[in-house]
Amino acid sequence: MEALYRIGQTPGDFFAGTGGFEYTFSNAFNSGIDLGALMEVMYDERDAQALTPFEHDIGLGLRVALNDVDGTEFLMGFVQDLTKNSNSMFAEASRRIGDNIKITMEMRLLLEQASEDLFFPLRDDDLFQLEVQYFF
């Protein structure tokens, strides 16, 4: 959890915070795989004057760790604004190949963005990134 109460700045005193949890089901279904359930709540009482698009949002996600030699991991999630019709999703995956190479994929999609949302100007700008790292 992170929280703050700021005094003496425009538009006045305010509270903002984010908090959540992750619970991991180790060796789920006797498979050797770890499954993690994630939830996070984001709040900023400045509402439309907040400098973040996450002023009344909830995020849900799932983390999967295969626990294999190559360190294969997946993370998927969804963020919903609780006061506007704005939501997004994300996915990340990574895996080592041998001793020297790691491949990472990241995807972020802005599914729906309300016109008053700070992400509205980016509504058509999704992200897909593939990264290959070489270690020596």
Overview of this protein structure:
- The protein is mainly β and 136 residues long.
- 0% of the residues lie in helices and 60% in strands.
- It contains no helices and 8 strands.
- It has strands at 2-6, 14-28, 33-44, 56-65, 73-81, 87-97, 101-112, 127-134.
- An 8-stranded antiparallel sheet has the order 1-2-3-4-5-6-7-8, with no helix packed on it.
Provide a brief overview of the structure.
The protein has 136 residues and is mainly beta.
What is the topological layout?
Layout: E1 2-6, E2 14-28, E3 33-44, E4 56-65, E5 73-81, E6 87-97, E7 101-112, E8 127-134
How many angstroms does the end-to-end distance come to?
37 Å
- The arrangement of helices and strands along the chain is EEEEEEEE
Helical stretch tally: 0
Rough outline: elongated
Strand order of the largest sheet: 1-2-3-4-5-6-7-8
Poorly predicted regions are: none
Mean pLDDT: 94
